[in-house]
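--- STAGE predict ---
source: upstream dedup step, 1 unique chain passed
mode: sequence only
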Amino acid sequence: MKTTAEPVRDYLAAVEREASALPADRRQELLADLAEHIEVTRAERPDVPVGEILGELGDPRTIASTALAEAGGLDGRTVVAAAPAARRGKVHPIVPLLMLTVPYFLAVLGPDVTALQFCSGLLRIVGAVLLCTSVHWAPVQKVVGVMLAAVLPTTAILVWDETTVAPAGETPALVANLITLAVLIGTSAWLWRARRRV
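--- STAGE serialize ---
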């Protein structure tokens, strides 16, 4: 009886064979991207059989042809129609980082403007979703990034605004805003340095 790891291993081995003309580092990057995509898809959709996930990726030969075409090393071979080989990041990695950080300035500039607060919250949610669906970070980095850049600041703001825990006055509010801003910028800088180039 085959385990679920065997079809994945066989699939990746087939891609590796078909992509043997690629440079070794590019081939390993392709395999790592595919393995991560399979892992993320299996985690997001555990009820879907692994064979169906592999089928969605496409034929190993097509994936290899596409990778060879991107690398410029066709050696006279024709390229089969481009398949969604490894999930490519359609959004530049700076976009989710900016969407998690910049709206905080909007929220601070207009604390009494409901529309501004709503837009700020919406942009931060979109930024968190883009971060979570990006191929530029590992799953652990995504979780830490969302926790530090979205959940923690939002929780701190809610506690500050809705309870009596926070001290009154403008100086404590300024200090709290500066600390939150430092956390957001630090998290974004860490994510930027930790990103994978796809």
